[in-house]
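How a chain folds remains the central question behind the approach discussed here. No coordinates are needed to read the tokens, only the vocabulary itself. For completeness, the protein is quoted in full, as a sequence line and a line of structure tokens:
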Amino acid sequence: FLDRFDSSTESFKHYRIDAEASDQLPTPIERIGEDSSGILWLATAKGLYRFDPASGGTARYVHDPDDRDSLAANRINVAREDREGRLWIANAGGMDQLDRRTGKVIRRAPLHAEVSEFHEDEFGIFWMTGGDPQCVLASWNPRNDIVKCHSINYKLQGSSSKAFISE
């Protein structure tokens, strides 16, 4: 469930986000993002959910191996807008730009590995962290579609180690 607290009644309203999967285990929500129009984007291991707080309505977006315009994977790590208002989805298969009107992926970052988190800097470069040990930190310039992997190595008690980057 997703719960909304009503301070005037001091009670919670429960919203079930995975009604189509009522015979299965609940879908834990990993992260919640809000876009500029007030829509909530719920990151789960079973796909991306769009939740409209005004109506209580939900929509689910998942990976479909027969549809190249679907999300790259069902395990969603975060959904967030960039500076231009485009919605980006970091997932187990990379990072996808989702068209909110059609529910289709309209662009993919050319990093074909899990993206755990991302940040767009002031120059429009996306910095992505992920699960690929050879590319724990990547930068992507969407203007020329070039991805650069950055290695961060350090010595811990005389042994070489690779950095793990998290939020």
Remarks:
- The longest strand covers residues 29-34.
- DSSP finds no helices and 16 strands in the chain.
- The two ends are 25 Å apart (CA to CA).
